[in-house]
Each structure stands twice: as C-alpha cells, then as structure tokens.
Design brief:
single chain, 8 helices, mainly alpha
Length: 154
C-alpha cells in the first residue's frame, strides 16, 4: 500500500529537473544549430538556399537574422534568461519552418489520422510543443529568470 501511495505524492524539489534538462538541451540545440548557420560557410549557403526556396522575402537578410536569433535565443534559453521570450521567438521560427518547408514533406491524399502522425514526425512539431511548454512553465527554479524574480521581490 505504501508503494502505491508513493505514486501519488508530490515529487519534491527535484520535480523541475526534467524541465531544466529539457530547457538546457533544447537551448543548446538551437544555439549550436544557429551558430553553425552563422559561422560555417557550407551551412550559411544551405540556410540561404532553404529560405530562398521557401519564398521568404529578403532571403540574404533573413537567413542571417533567423540564424542569429536561433543562436542568441538558444543560448539565453540554456541559461534560463528571458525564457518565455526566447521560447516565443524560437516557436515563431519553428512555425515558419513548419509551414514553409516541413508540411511539404507530408504526402497528399492521406486520411486525417495518418496526416497527423506524419505531422508529429516532423521535428518542428516537437520544437513548437517544447516552446509552448517553456512559455507556460518558464525556466523553472534553476535559471537566471528565477534569480532576477527573487531579487525583484526583495
């Protein structure tokens, strides 16, 4: 009986560990991805080609802007600084990537359930869901946002 009740107890102070691990890993992913698009010439060319083919206006400017946003906001997310803003920016980038590029990978003529499963196979769908979670939850107790909030409340 005691084991059964343990399933329903509050997890304690470590309940935010998965949120923190996800935030840091997700932020570092976007930082690394954006950094490579800004500073590695082959990735710069690929980013420019992708944005051009997607029909996004001013592709030369937007490719650098988007990659820079991924780098900056990814790093901020990893540290838990302006977490909700960073997650919003990265969600917008992911939504644009999903709507301009990702959805075109889903075959035509699928039933709704099969289309939905294809949608969730696209990485941008997971990125969007993680961004929503971070916009709702914030950085958790282990991030710079929490330190700033504690200082402001004193």
């Amino acid at each position: 009986m005691a084991r059964c009740l343990a399933l329903f107890r509050s997890p304690g102070s470590y309940c935010f560990l998965p949120l923190t691990l996800m935030r840091v890993a997700f932020g570092l992913f976007f930082f690394a991805s954006g950094f490579n698009k800004v500073f590695v010439p082959a990735n710069q060319a690929l980013m420019l080609e992708t944005i051009t083919e997607a029909g996004i206006p001013f592709p030369e400017v937007m490719s650098v802007f988007v990659a820079s946003c991924e780098t900056l906001f990814g790093l901020m997310l990893a540290f838990g600084l302006l977490t909700r803003l960073g997650a919003l920016v990265l969600m917008i980038i992911s939504l644009v990537a999903l709507s301009t590029v990702g959805l075109h990978h889903i075959p035509d003529g699928l039933n709704l359930l099969t289309w939905y499963s294809w949608l969730l196979y696209l990485p941008e769908s997971s990125y969007i869901l993680m961004c929503v979670m971070l916009m709702v939850q914030g950085c958790g107790p282990w991030g710079i946002d929490r330190l700033i909030a504690q200082r402001c409340s004193q």
